[in-house]
Amino acid sequence: MPVERIARRLPDLDSIVAAHQALRARTPLVQCLTNVVSSNFMANVLLAAGASPAMVDNPEEAAGFAAIAGAVLINLGTPTQAQAQAMRLAVTAAQQAGRPWVLDPIAAGALPWRGALAAELLAFEPAVVRGNASEIIGLAGLGSNSRGFDSSNDPADAVPAALSLLRHGASVSASGPLDHVVGRVADDHGEVRRYLIRIGGGSALLPRVTASGCSLGALVAAYTAVAPDTLTALVAAHVHFALAAEVAQAKASGPGSFVPAFLDGLGSVNAELIRAKAQLDISLLDV
Question: Is the distance from CB of 11 to CB of 235 less than 8 angstroms?
Fold first, then answer.
């Protein structure tokens, strides 16, 4: 069933648990067009969480694979001309086949060529836009202080930018110490309202591990392949990621030991942990 762009209900613990169970049951195939730094770790994150990764990012195969994948991730970390062409082909095929795709706009607001590429890709209406606060602000054109692969802004600062990006994507998130997610929900009368969902948890060690944010984008894509709507998918992925990081932090002594503990944590997250530990704060923005 194609993912709904506008949610029919707000995400809650029941819908997050259901999305997580669907991820484990269906093992969605996620096509990742990503940067050279993240590829290996991202694949391991998807496998540990319960999805199936495919790093198919060449122009000769990208379109054909996007048409059969459960979801597609476009990550702008280290784009080449060939990979950019593969991205165009993949999102075109995904749109035609009704497959959800996720845009992770790394440094799109700081580097003109990839910024132009990101703007071009936005026209193909991603299911989700996910980045850190600086990337979301940069992509929306509301600032020029994006530090490329780092985050120099608090996620709360990115909420206006995230809301502006809802013109292109159905749901948007700015990750950080407290993740901020915005999306649209239709009530029983068909009136669409925008909501802000803050997701707590995680670990201070996550920013010290290369490609942790990129891998969150891949997990978001996996959830869009199985959740009923983009907002539930986005929130469920953030919750899963945050809980796994908490599990890992309790066992790790530093970044090196955190990585294997985090992969184990992704596999150990279950319904009981979600219900006991998920931290959600929901605010209606259209009042």
Answer: yes
**What average pLDDT does this structure show over 258-276?**
98
Query: How far apart (Å, rounded) are the C-alpha atoms in residues 107 and 5?
Result: 26
The total of other beta-carbon atoms located within 10 Å of residue 22's CB is 18
For 229, which DSSP code? B
CA–CA dist 218, 266 (Å, integer) = 13
Q: What is the mean pLDDT of residues 29-38?
A: 97
Please tell me whether residue 106 adopts helix, strand or coil conformation: coil
For residue 255, what pLDDT is reported? 96
Q: Would you say residue 12 has pLDDT above 70?
A: yes
Predicted pLDDT of residue 6: 86
pLDDT digit string (tens) for 104-158?
A: 999 888 888 999 999 999 999 999 999 999 999 999 984 444 444 445 578 899 9
Question: What's the rounded Cα separation, in Å, for the pair 12 and 205?
Answer: 27
Alpha carbon of residue 58 to chain centroid: 22
Q: Answer whether 86's CB lies under 8 Å from 59's CB.
A: yes
Coil, helix or strand at residue 183: strand
Give the Å distances, CA to CA, from 11 to 16, 159, 185, 209.
Answer: 7, 18, 10, 29
165's enclosing H/E stretch is: helix 159-165
The answer to whether the beta carbons of residues 143 and 185 sit under 8 Å apart is no
Rg (alpha carbons) of the chain, rounded to whole number: 17
**Beta bridge partners of residue 174, listed in sequence order:** 131, 180
Q: Is residue 154 helix, strand or coil?
A: coil
| pTM as predicted | 0.94
Cα angle, residue 29 at apex, residues 244 and 117 outer, rounded to 5°: 90
Alpha helix ranges (H) inside 5-132: 13-26, 39-49, 62-66, 81-97, 112-122
